Amino acid sequence: MKDILQKLLSSNNHASAPFILRLTLGIIFIGHGWGKLFAEGNPAGFAGWLGSMGLEPSLLLAVAAGLAETVGGLLLVIGLFTRVAASSLVVVMLVAIGFVHLDAGMFGKGGYEFQLLLLVGVVSLLIQGSGKYSLDEIINKKL
User: Fold this and answer.
1) Which of 12, 26, 51, 53 could link 77 by a cystine bridge, Cβ 3.0 to 4.6 Å?
2) Domain total for the chain?
């Protein structure tokens, strides 16, 4: 019984945890960024929405957000320059929370709970790095 309790209460630095986090966040960010760049309305449509909230230069911000999410998400998936990608995504999520979702509160329609979860995830990767199963690790070993 003591062994079971110790296993339940102990922490371990399992190599697959950052991989799972990177993969999940990366796919989500790619989907959102791709939509901003290539979906209906593409950057111009997203820029119009940003402009309606007073965020200018809206087209530049729309393209920057779409690229940060798409390229940053791809970098997370493959585990390359993970901390750089996470840093750019932290900025995107802070802007999304601060300028778009904050007034709606945390929960409910337009709330920022999802963006906060994404923010916490990329902050975790920023602190921890990409983990064992990543291109960052392969490159680091060769250096």
Assistant:
1) 26
2) 1
Residue 115 domain-assigned? yes
pLDDT digits (tens, 9 = 90+) for 18-55: 999 999 999 999 999 999 999 877 888 889 989 998 88
Asked if residue 57 has a cis previous peptide bond (ω within 30° of 0), the answer is yes
**pLDDT value, residue 137:** 92
> What is the residue type of 100?
V
Helices 113-128, 82-95: crossing angle, 10 deg rounding: 150
* Residue 84: domain span: 17-142
> Per the domain annotation, does 119 fall within a domain?
yes
What gap in Å lies between CA 36 and CA 92, rounded to an integer?
A: 13
Q: So what's the pLDDT on residue 4? A: 83
